[in-house]
Structure formats: C-alpha cells, structure tokens
Specification:
Blueprint (H helix, E strand, L loop, with lengths): L5 H18 L4 H8 L3 H8 L7 H11 L3 H4 L7 H8 L6 H18 L1
Helix pairs in contact: 1-7, 2-3, 2-4
C-alpha cells in the first residue's frame, strides 16, 4: 500500500470537497445544513487546515452523493459525470473561478 503524507491527503480532501460542492451548486452553508456539519468546519476542510473525522466524512459524502474513497483520493473523481447528471454539464463562472483560485493557492503554498 502506498503511504500518503498528511499534506497530500489535506490537499486532496480539500480539493475534492470543494469541486464536489461546487459541482452540486451548493454554498458552504447549504452543504452544512444538508450534512449536519458546521459551515466553519467545511471551510476548514476546504482550506486544507484540517481533516474531517470519519463520521463527518461520511456525512459530507452522503450530502455530496459520493463515497469516502473518492474524497480521499483512492478512487477517481469523475467531475464531468457529476456535471452532466446534476447541472447539465455546466459550472457557473463563480464555481470555475473558485476552483482556479484554489488550484493557484495550492500550487503557491505546496510547491
């Protein structure tokens, strides 16, 4: 089994939670309500400051219609499939900008 460093896992979980939330068209507050997780915690996870507990991860996955292996990077993230099923294949301009900003932040902070 391949060992993955904590920073790598933080980055993967952060990136995937953000992409899945945006693909679903949810705000952090909406995801918080749907998953019964505090929206400040969701921000913590999306900013790669902390990792959710197993219970919280399962709640988030249920709310996002995915599984922990996808969020943790052990299974591929098929964002295009999500988009075509859920939003007609389109992300809002705001969602695209947020994802691009997050990528830039990760590249600057972790390179």
């Amino acid at each position: 089994m391949i060992h993955k460093s904590r920073l790598y896992v933080l980055d993967v979980v952060s990136d995937r939670l953000l992409k899945l939330r945006m693909a679903r068209g949810l705000s952090q507050e909406e995801l918080a309500a749907k998953s019964r997780v505090d929206n400040c915690q969701i921000s913590t996870y999306e900013c790669a400051v902390g990792l959710p507990s197993l219970t919280t991860l399962i709640r988030l996955c249920d709310a996002l219609g995915t599984t922990p292996d996808v969020v943790c990077g052990y299974a591929p993230l098929h964002i295009t499939e999500i988009l075509s099923r859920e939003r007609g294949g389109e992300l809002s301009a705001e969602a695209v900008q947020a994802i691009e900003r997050r990528k830039e932040d990760l590249q600057r902070g972790r390179s």
